[in-house]
Amino acid sequence: MIRIEKENVPCFYDLSWQPKPPAIILKIHKDLASEIKPIPNDAPFVIGYRAEFGFTSFIGSFNENLFGFNGALQKQKPDGGEFINFLVWIPKLQWFTGNICPVCNGKGKDTELELGCIKCGGTGKEKKSDRDWINARAISASLKLFFMVASMVTYEEKWRNTACKNSQLLELTLATGREFYGGQILGKIGKPFHKFLSSMGKKELDELNATTFAAYSQLFESISNHDRFFFRSHNYNGHLHFDCPGNACGLDFEEEEFSGHNTDTPAQQITLLAGLAKLCDMARETGI
Question: pLDDT tens across 216-235, in order?
């Protein structure tokens, strides 16, 4: 049985961050993609999630241009490399319409309470929201399904012998639900990845914070620079922690594993996954 936290294992999937336009890139090694059989539309997991969240479609084959629920993952054009890359666009869950706020008439203040307008957050601009967060839940469910199926294949001994020169950095398990910890993230830390995490300094932490802020800003356009307080990180010899808005919401890293704290929503999950993608990029820059 392969354990990436104990040994260097060739990479079978990876994450990367695209700043503009904001997207997480899921990179699947071609050897892994060839091992995973297409997931049928009548699979119990697919039927259950479509019924629970109202997803209108599902594609379970890596041969198509889209993968997952409601086309959540979009395949990039082949680049001749050893990975199949899927873009996971960061959706907008709250945005400005371009009109003035109908509650405060664009003044940004509640004239009776003499406080900032609650409806527009003091901006004077009208906001709209995706109340069901269906696009975010489709991303969460699609990635959860991929990581679950991948874990059923990649524990086998043969993955020590793939041709990929890069090492596997992490393994992920996700939750998708409406309850507490419905956006949970759990993972294993690859041996070389822990070495990188132990070496992280202020520069890397600043880049990590900037990435989670950018991802959350895409999700919620109304967030302001004052909210940067919620995007913090600290590191002590690889015991990394980084935050996003919520009730002490964030990811905690130990020697071999990491887990989310109070990760209740898909928005928090996507924000923290963006941070993980940026960590993977910075680790790859060191030659891992």
Answer: 999 998 776 667 788 999 99
Measured CA to CA, the distance from residue 268 to residue 266 in angstroms comes to 5
CA distance 105 to 103: 6
235/181 Cα distance (integer angstroms): 24
Among 167, 76, 89, smallest CA distance to 135 is for 89
Reported as type and span, the H/E element at residue 60 is: none
Contacts of 105 (CB under 8 A, 6+ apart): none
Q: Where are the beta strands (DSSP E) in 19-72?
A: 23-29, 58-59, 66-69
In percent, the amount of the chain with pLDDT more than 70 equals 97
DSSP H helices in the chain: 30-35, 44-53, 134-151, 191-199, 202-219, 266-285
Q: What angle do CA 59, 148, 254 make, to 5 degrees?
A: 140
Q: Is 5 helix (H, G, I), strand (E, B) or coil?
A: coil
Question: Tell me, what DSSP letter sits at residue 220?
Answer: B
| Structural domain spans, the chain | 13-93+130-285, 94-129
pTM score of the predicted model? 0.93
